[in-house]
What we know:
The protein is mainly β. Helices cover 5% and strands 52% of the residues. It contains one helix and eleven strands, in the order βββαββββββββ. It has one helix spanning 30-35, and strands at 2-7, 11-13, 18-26, 38-43, 50-55, 60-62, 70-75, 80-85, 94-100, 105-106, 110-115.
Amino acid sequence: QVQLVESGGDWVQAGGSLRLSCVASGSASVVFFKLSTIGWYRQAPGKQRELVIKSNGGYSNYNDSVKGRFTVSRDNAKMTVYLQINSLKPEDTGVYYCNIEAGDYWGQGTQVTVSS
C-alpha cells in the first residue's frame, strides 16, 4: 500500500504564494514514484473535485485556470511532488489532493484558503 501525505496548505491573502508538498511512503519505491503519473486535484466547497495538474515527470497538463500561476515539480529521490502556487485568487480556495494514477492512491488533502 502506498501512502500519500500532503502539506503546505494555509490561509493567505489574494496575490500570495504557497508551496504544497506531497510525500509518498509505504510500499512505494523510488522507481515506482519516478515512473508514476501524479496529479494535483482540488475540491472547492460545494463543488466536485477537479484536476489542477497532471504530470508524468516529462510532460505536465495544466487546468486552464491555473496556467502561468501553478507549477509542478518533483524530487524523485525524496518521493515528493511539489505544487508551487503563485498569484493566488479566492477561487483557488479548496482542499488540494495529490494522486498517483497507477493504483489510484490519494492523500488526505491540505486546505488552501485565499481571502480577497
